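Recap quiz, item 2
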Amino acid sequence: MGNPMRIRAKLDGEVVDAKVLMNHAMETGQRKDASGALVPAHYITKVIASCNGKTVLEADWGPSVSKNPLLGFRFRGAAAGDTLSVTWTDSMNDTRTDEAVIG
Amino acid sequence: MIARHRTRAIAGLAFAALTAASSIVLAQPEDDPVAEYRAMMGDDNPAEFWVMRGEALWSEPRGPASVSLEQCDLGMGPGVVKGAYAHLPRYFADAGQVMDLETRLLHCMVTLQGIPRKEALKQRFGDGARESDFEALAAFVAEESRGQVLDVPLDNPAMEKAYALGKEMFFYRAGTHDFSCATCHGQTGMRIRLQQLPNISEAEGARAAYSGWPAYRVSQGEVRTMQWRLQDCFRQQRLPQLDFGSQASIALTTYIAHNANGAVMDAPGMKR
């Protein structure tokens, strides 16, 4: 169970502007610690955002995405008060889902 | 979209942020990629995660005494966090010395929670999986002073002494490179590499520099405190190690903070 995300979703006309700040180490597996040992890879591999039962974004991520990444995207077809749900799954099969009400 | 050369300047940290950038108007000047990056991130600062952790740490009973920090006096009375950071460093009669935020937190950990000083200092800076309580607590306390006007008066002899010592250190050239703080931070409108370095000996530069610390350092993925900033400046100058919470570190912080008086606090900020 990962750490909570911060999700903001705002309706701008017909388009929802969504910003998702994720709390994740995003270790590439290339970095060494102070003793010279490799820090094991640990990064988000999949991000899925859904609204009203429909997937509005699906992304395959890899080790090149930054630590604590911010993901921004826009989509149509939602109204104020709807719930946006975002789920990530990482390379250690950990997963986390958070929701936000579209304002 | 962002020009290639600037994308490279923040390579490896910004993929996800860049995907968000296309819809944002970049109002910052062309020659300040860090400001541009900050504008792209908008209100989203990963330092929030440190603030959340710091808030939980503040009220959690810890140490041999199993008490929280809620009785810690940051200068506004025991347990008062709101606005406290906008009045630090200050003289604390109970400790008989001037203290900055991190030193005061250390003082509270030792005197209230009974954590041995050495143990408390072990993780004074975070490193990946090993998180620093100082960085989380400092982020939380700073957040509680966001929007407040910095007011650090030299209202007693100890503060005057700290300021004078800090000023002397700021201009004191030493080490293999014959550097002083002023070498990089004593001129206005100059830069080193891509960094536009603030002139900390003047109000405007000091305000710009001080009001955003503690800060999320994008290049490190960690929130860093002013104590971290200063010890790293010492390392860059090839000076002897600046000890965490030392009189020297507090004096320098006092010098910068007093110069920055009138700044609107905006910490935790986001830095390169």
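Chain B has a mean pLDDT of 88.
Residues 170 and 181 of chain B are 5 Å apart (CA to CA).
End of item.
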